[in-house]
């Protein structure tokens, strides 16, 4: 590890020395070395395409480097091609789900190590002990606080649940070396807290962890040291306490990168409050395993970005899917520019101007073997044809323009998307959603897995769309994403719980609201949200003018329905809880009055 004066003494739990790897003309890694001591958590950071996942596949035994060696506990690693031997020594949670979707959650938890009933040793192993597998899996997942049916196929559970199953599976093998490649990308805050709560005792027991994340605050929270890669090369390694966040970002992007600290997102301009909504969601009710919706109403006006925040299972992704036609609601309506969309018809939603960035980019976002150009122009092929034949010239020009707009780094528009780094795949997905100049962009976690600088570029692209008069419905629990929002609607257990109408956003108030909590202790009287437990059916949601950096909030939820909005249907009522201001009610987009315009 060149340039690391504090290099720990061997034996290392895992050590990669002089690793180099090329893919065709792409040099993914050049002479990278890193090592992890027992009980140490090493962060590995770098921009999209810096080579982090390539390091992970080499250190997990999935790929033999062109040059360099891997040692585990000071000894040579098993040969590539003996995955079972590697799995006993190194537990890896990859960026892409490695669960077998057709097997049950319990079967996935015990892949390769199924418990068996007593047999006759090696000669005649006993039959699989299915009930032990189910009970064991349920127990581990209960410890993680995940309510998953272990007999359900892994393909049927949510992205977040899948990720937790993978992490729990990796940790339950008793390994001394754990590699986590963006483990929190699909986790909400409570999940991240739980994850860190699990990692700390493991570190105390001497397990070494390689931790990859684009969330730098996590690196500062859990890692002892951090290694920075740039363009496949080792740039720096040091104790996290000795490297400030700005320094870390500069090391990642390079001092002369135009994105280094310059691009900021300006405060969102206020859209015309009297403009007819470009998107209206009316009394939407939908059942879905990933979170149901009950009577949710909201509007998005031209030039407006409405953020939607909520914990996993709160219904935020179901709302996005229902607007995009991928979930069929049981009641309610979605209108684009006043025209009701038929339920469950994504093709019609697309034609009416909905651009969609799905949560699960690997399953729904792109066709892996198709090139960047084919993927990014997929929603506009009708516009690129002449006399029924695709015009190669127009196709190439559109592909280049879109890839450039999103800053997709690839070997060219013909490169299959499967070969791109995770963050660049995400840019292709966003590019595809924006290609058709949509009236409304519905984006779920659009910056997931994207590096800090590219994040600004992606959010900038959404901001631009909004600036050009489209509406944006932005579902994200990354509060940095929500910086571009004009309003933020918070869902709790499928219902609208609160609405924040005036930036700048108060981080703590947003988090509290998403967890169904009311005013913070330190809020002055008369400010903040007073929200009860929506399940109790007796919610009292107040609203306020801005105070303490928090915009006015107007709660609107549940059967109590003291705030008229969606539950009462039809009017925006003042809150009985007091503190309601005309401002928040007038601008509150959940009012059906707005939706009806
Ligand atoms: N199978 C492959 N075929 C061709 N090129 C590849 C392949 N896998 C990775 N690459 C290239 O190697 C480089 C490093 O990619 P890698 O996935 O390791 O980056 P990363 O740092 O993990 O990025 P991200 O943060 O976006 O996940 C990229 O230029 C990528 O396009």
Automatic annotation (TrEMBL):
Transmembrane segments: none annotated. Keywords: ATP-binding, Nucleotide-binding, Repeat, Transport. Residues 532-544, 555-588 have a biased composition (Low complexity). Residues 516-597 are annotated as: Disordered. The keyword Repeat applies. One of its GO terms (molecular function) is ATP hydrolysis activity. This is Sugar ABC transporter ATP-binding protein. The lineage of its organism: Bacteria, Bacillati, Actinomycetota, Actinomycetes, Micromonosporales.
């Amino acid at each position: 590890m060149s340039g690391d004066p504090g290099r720990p003494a061997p034996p290392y739990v895992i050590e990669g020395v002089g690793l180099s790897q090329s893919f065709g003309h792409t040099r993914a890694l050049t002479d990278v070395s890193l090592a992890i001591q027992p009980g140490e958590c090493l962060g590995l950071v770098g921009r999209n395409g810096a080579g982090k996942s390539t390091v992970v596949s080499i250190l997990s035994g999935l790929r033999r480097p062109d040059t360099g060696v891997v040692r585990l506990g000071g000894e040579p690693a098993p040969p590539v091609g003996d995955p079972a031997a590697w799995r006993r020594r190194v537990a890896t949670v990859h960026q892409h789900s490695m669960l077998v979707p057709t097997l049950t959650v319990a079967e996935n938890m015990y892949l390769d190590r199924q418990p068996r009933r007593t047999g006759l040793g090696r000669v005649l192993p006993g039959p699989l002990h299915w009930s032990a597998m189910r009970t064991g899996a349920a127990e581990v997942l209960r410890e993680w606080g995940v309510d998953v049916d272990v007999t359900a196929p892994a393909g049927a559970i949510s992205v977040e649940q899948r990720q937790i199953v993978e992490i729990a599976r990796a940790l339950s093998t008793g390994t001394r070396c754990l590699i986590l490649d963006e483990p929190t990308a699909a986790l909400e805050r409570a999940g991240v807290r739980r994850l860190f709560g699990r990692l700390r005792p493991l570190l105390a027991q001497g397990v070494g962890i390689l931790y990859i994340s684009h969330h730098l605050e996590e690196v500062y929270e859990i890692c002892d040291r951090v290694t920075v890669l740039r363009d496949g090369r080792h740039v720096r390694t040091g104790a996290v306490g000795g490297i400030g966040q700005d320094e870390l970002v500069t090391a990642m992007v390079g001092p002369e990168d135009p994105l280094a600290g310059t691009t900021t997102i300006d405060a969102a301009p206020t859209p015309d409050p009297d403009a007819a909504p470009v998107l209206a969601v009316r009394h939407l009710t939908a059942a879905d395993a990933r979170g149901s919706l009950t009577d949710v109403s909201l509007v998005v006006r031209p030039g407006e970005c409405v953020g939607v925040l909520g914990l996993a299972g709160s219904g935020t992704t179901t709302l996005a899917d229902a607007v995009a036609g991928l979930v069929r609601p049981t009641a309610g309506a979605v209108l684009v520019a006043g025209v009701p969309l038929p339920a469950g018809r994504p093709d019609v939603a697309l034609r009416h101007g909905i651009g969609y960035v799905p949560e699960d980019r690997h399953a729904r976002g792109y066709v892996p073997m198709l090139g960047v150009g084919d993927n990014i122009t997929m929603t506009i092929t009708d516009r690129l044809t002449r006399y029924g034949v695709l015009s190669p010239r127009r196709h190439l020009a559109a592909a280049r323009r879109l890839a450039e707009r999103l800053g997709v780094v690839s070997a060219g528009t013909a490169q299959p998307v499967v070969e791109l780094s995770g963050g660049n795949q995400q840019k292709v997905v966003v590019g595809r959603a924006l290609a058709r100049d949509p009236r409304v962009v519905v984006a779920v976690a659009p910056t997931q897995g994207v590096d800090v600088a590219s994040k600004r570029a992606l959010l900038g692209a959404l901001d631009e769309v909004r600036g050009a008069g489209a509406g944006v419905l932005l579902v994200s629990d990354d509060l940095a994403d929500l910086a571009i929002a004009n309003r933020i609607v918070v869902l709790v257990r499928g219902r609208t719980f609160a609405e924040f109408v005036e930036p700048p956003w108060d981080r703590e108030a947003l988090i509290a609201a998403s967890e169904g909590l009311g005013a913070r202790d330190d809020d002055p009287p008369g400010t903040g949200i007073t929200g009860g437990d929506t399940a109790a059916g007796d919610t009292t949601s107040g609203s306020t003018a801005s105070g303490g950096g928090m915009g006015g909030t107007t709660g609107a939820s549940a059967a109590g329905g003291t705030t008229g909005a969606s539950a009462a249907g039809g009017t925006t009522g003042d809150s009985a809880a007091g503190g309601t201001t005309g401002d928040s009610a007038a601008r509150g987009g959940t009012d059906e009055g707005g939706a009806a315009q």
